[in-house]
Amino acid sequence: MKIKVVLFAAIALCILTACDGQETFHFENESDNWKVEYAADVETSRDAEDSTIKIKYTGEDEAPNQVYYSIQSGTGDMSGDASMKGEVLETAGSKCSGCAVTKEDDEFEVTIEWEDKSEHFTLKNAD
């Protein structure tokens, strides 16, 4: 019986320690035609990050089929040409380990280009 209790305590300690130093940051903003959300799961103990990007068309015209997006920050840049699926584009932002990671007070400069149009705005922490 003692072995089960010790084993359970050891496993619980490992699980709790693994979550130490992990934070999730949410950044968002919108322009006249777009809403962008950037989420970063950061593990500061390993300088590791896993992020996702959600871009939603909010304009009055029909959503474009193709967009170019650029998201720039002090820790790196993400960009790409992407096909829209309806009004939403969700994509994996980036994964890295041993890298410069997103901080709570970071800001991201966003540029979205579509059909000879362009908008530029800044994402800020939404928490």
- The second-level CATH architecture is Sandwich
Strand content: over 45%
The name of the CATH topology is: Immunoglobulin-like
What's the Cα radius of gyration?
19 Å
Helix/strand class: mainly beta
Q: Topology as H/E string?
A: HEEEEEEEE
Which blocks of ≥5 consecutive residues have pLDDT under 50?
Answer: 4-10, 12-17
Biggest sheet details: 8 strands, antiparallel
Task: Note down, in words, how this protein is organized.
This protein has 127 residues and is mostly beta strands. An eight-stranded antiparallel sheet has the order 5-4-7-8-1-2-3-6, with no helix packed on it. Strand 7 and strand 8 (117-125) form a beta hairpin. It is 14% helix and 56% strand. It is elongated, with a radius of gyration of 19 Å. It has one domain (22-125): Immunoglobulin-like. The longest helix has 18 residues, at 2-19.
Q: Which helices and strands, and how do they pair?
A:
Elements (H helix, E strand, L loop, with lengths): L1 H18 L2 E9 L3 E10 L4 E10 L8 E8 L2 E8 L4 E10 L10 E7 L2 E9 L2
Antiparallel strand pairs: 1-2, 1-8, 2-3, 3-6, 4-5, 4-7, 7-8
Summarize the structure.
By secondary structure, this protein is mainly beta. The protein is built from one helix and eight strands; from the N terminus they run αββββββββ. Strand 2 and strand 3 form a beta hairpin.
